[in-house]
Design goal:
There is one protein chain. This protein has one domain: Rossmann fold (3-Layer(aba) Sandwich), CATH 3.40.50. About 40% of the residues lie in helices and about 15% in strands. The chain has 7 helices and 7 strands, in the order βαβαβαβαβαβαβα. β6, α6 and β7 form a beta-alpha-beta unit. α1 packs across α2 and α4 crosses α5.
């Protein structure tokens, strides 16, 4: 019997919680839940905000969550970068700062889901595109113009998913391509 390969998907988005309404945070949480329910490992950038809420959703569904830290240790992560380690089962302490962390994370995952973005997400997105990873944006209530504003030039490389409920279909395509 041939077993399917397991998927690891990074969930990226704004870390600045000022940008994140309760509705957006719940959206991130639901993405994490859905990924976990489909047996997908969730990866995050080990920062507060959108990714942490996705990690929470996956964690609540007993999904595996991996964080990629810019720091070289837990002490540096908490004290220098001042970031949480909540809802993570394991953390990869890259020691390469934010830019290096983004490259390591992009090359380590199978696909990327983008939530509400800010400038912090731009390098994560660019790293994902250059690593030739599928990039997904879940439309929900966003217009094409709003999505393009969130993800910028990467919009042309992103696959738009109409809602979280359609996420599994797109992940199956990624999974099939790994056979």
């Amino acid at each position: 019997m041939i077993q399917k390969k397991h998927l690891t998907v990074a969930v990226l988005g704004a870390q600045d919680t000022i940008l994140l309404t309760p509705e957006i945070l719940e959206h991130a949480r639901e993405i994490g839940r859905q990924l976990a329910l489909h047996g997908v490992t969730v990866a995050t950038a080990s920062v507060a905000g959108f990714g942490m809420w996705a990690a929470l959703g996956a964690y609540e569904e007993s999904g595996l969550v991996i964080g990629f830290s810019p720091a070289s240790s837990e002490v540096e992560h908490r004290q220098h970068f001042r970031q949480p380690l909540d809802y993570l089962h394991t953390v990869v302490f890259t020691g390469f700062g934010y830019l290096g962390r983004d490259i390591v994370m992009a090359r380590s995952v199978d696909a990327v889901i983008i939530g509400l973005s800010d400038m912090d997400t731009a390098h994560e997105l660019i790293s994902s595109v250059y690593a030739n990873k599928p990039v997904f944006v879940i439309r929900n209530n966003y217009s094409d113009e709003q999505i393009q504003e969130m993800v910028g030039d990467v919009f042309s490389h992103a696959q738009i998913i109409e809602s979280v409920e359609h996420l599994a279909d797109h992940l199956d395509i990624v999974l099939d391509s790994k056979k």
